[in-house]
Amino acid sequence: MIDRIPIPNPFGWGGPSTFAIMMLLGFLAGSKLLPLEFKRKGLIPDVAENLVFLGVLGTLVGAKIFYIFEIWDQIFVLPGVYWFPLTHWEGFREFNDPTCRVCIESYGLWSSLFSGGGLVFYGGFLVGLLFVTLFMKFNHLDYGSYFDGMATSMAIGYSLGRLGCFISGDGCYGYHTDANIPLLTFTFKGAMPSGVPVWNTPVIESIVSFVYFLYFHYHARFQNYKKWSIFFQYILLHGIARLLIEFLRVNKAVIPFRDPPKHVNIPDPSGNSTFLTEYYWHGFSQSQYISLGLIFIGLFFIVKNRLWEKELLKS
């Protein structure tokens, strides 16, 4: 796994992030497919350019905001001391107190917010949808038709973006497993080296999303379903996939149902032999609650409006 493309420059070696490259490829794939689908549906193809731009902007803004919420307890680690992280770039790390372990392992609010890493997909997904929806509202566009046309692009974009997590080794991996399944498991030696075999959740999710892309691109969009059907199918299917995959991932529970396995922030085989050797899931994560919400929304509108039915073709 490669975090950055090694390119020589006046400051040494280092180039663009591989994760950023894969995200860019995802958006480029979407920007290529989206106008073609809008044209096929009799919509305005040029709208796609604006939607992709707003999708990128919303993804970056929302993903960062949700990431801060996810690590909030690792930023404000000292009870009752709230101003220090707000006035210091690296937060409690700037205490420079070797006896304060929680300070050393904490994150800075501002350094995390403006760093190149640390992105939560659902934050980007929701804020991106908000930006796109506002654009459609202000331009009086047909929400259902345009959102239906976006499903294929969202599926392939997400598939490529998730693949970027694996290539860059950013740490969104699963818990320990003794299984040896090509592509689905690997020994993690990325940004947070643990040295133990884990579930390859980024690749699993990428494969699932690519299957969704094939379904929407080669089948569903030609079935003349009712308006909104394609979009809510995507919402439902994506929610189910993310909900299930989160059971394999190492994520904090919003409300713990049981105590999680003990671990350290940056483990290694000798520093914490128990890291990831137990089943990690200990309660629904932030992503799982959002996934449940998407599943409920998708099911509600599909059932309420009988979106499995097809429109009658005009003679």
Could you characterize what this model shows?
The chain has 315 residues and is mainly α. 52% of the residues lie in helices and 3% in strands. The strands form 2 sheets. Strands 1-2 form a two-stranded antiparallel sheet. It is globular, with a radius of gyration of 21 Å.
Count of alpha and pi helical runs: 11
SS content category? mainly alpha
Mean pLDDT: 83
List the helices and strands in order: EEHHHHHHHHEEHHH
Quaternary: single chain
- Radius of gyration (CA) equals 21 Å
Kindly report how far apart the N and C termini lie: 56 Å
Number of strands: 4
Spans with pLDDT under 50 lasting ≥5 residues?
A: none
Tell me the strand percentage band.
Answer: under 5%
Helix coverage percent: 40-55%
The side-by-side strand order for the widest beta sheet comes to: 1-2
Largest beta-sheet details: 2 strands, antiparallel
Shape: globular
Topology diagram in text:
Layout: E1 8-9, E2 12-13, H1 18-40, H2 47-70, H3 72-75, H4 83-87, H5 101-104, H6 109-113, H7 121-138, H8 143-168, E3 185-187, E4 197-199, H9 201-218, H10 229-245, H11 286-304
Antiparallel strand pairs: 1-2, 3-4
Helix pairs in contact: 1-2, 1-8, 2-7, 8-9, 8-10, 9-10, 10-11
Task: Give a short summary of the structure.
By secondary structure, the chain is mainly alpha-helical. It is 52% helix and 3% strand.
